[in-house]
Design a protein that fits this description.
166 residues; alpha+beta; 3-stranded antiparallel sheet
Length: 166
């Protein structure tokens, strides 16, 4: 924090793998700084800052496939689950979408991946300690959604029944 009570302004950290991101801006001096607040674990992001990486993280962990995958892995913890078993236990997920979801969770340190050197390779997944901590938050969101789905459906029906006034 600065003396004026405002959070310290620091530039956004560079991505670890620049080949997977958009090219650098033409004028680096015009990049948007990210506001952060210090915590015991280091700087904490500001969700309302457009340049904050927290937004990208929420995009990744806020999907139904992430929530369902984390739930299945949490139920199996501390044991591993093979890819094919995960696909069976996450109804409706395609092989590609599950692969993308698991790759993202692994990259973020939420899931550990182990490959057995067999033909074909056997791939096993389990939640890390960080992933288990995410399950608590996602479980609360899933419970809220399941409890309030009828209310949301009713609100949608009421809204859709109203004439469109612009």
């Amino acid at each position: 924090m600065t003396t004026g009570g405002e959070p310290k302004v620091t530039p956004s950290p560079a991505p670890k793998n620049p080949a997977r991101t958009n090219p650098a801006p033409k004028n680096p001096a015009k990049t948007t700084p990210t506001r952060t607040t210090p915590t015991k674990k280091g700087p904490r992001g500001d969700l309302f800052d457009p340049g904050c990486p927290t937004r990208r993280l929420l995009d990744r962990i806020g999907t139904k496939w992430t929530s369902m995958t984390v739930k299945v892995l949490a139920e199996a913890a501390p044991y591993e689950v093979r890819f094919a078993e995960l696909q069976r236990r996450v109804p409706g997920v395609s092989q590609k979408m599950l692969s993308v979801t698991l790759r993202s969770l692994t990259r973020d340190g939420l899931v550990a991946r182990r490959v057995e050197p067999t033909v074909p390779p056997r791939v096993h997944y389990r939640l890390t300690e960080l992933g288990l901590s995410l399950e608590t938050a996602l479980a609360a969101v899933r419970a809220w959604a399941e409890e309030h789905m009828l209310d949301i459906d009713r609100a949608n029906e009421l809204h859709d029944a109203q004439p469109d006034v612009t």
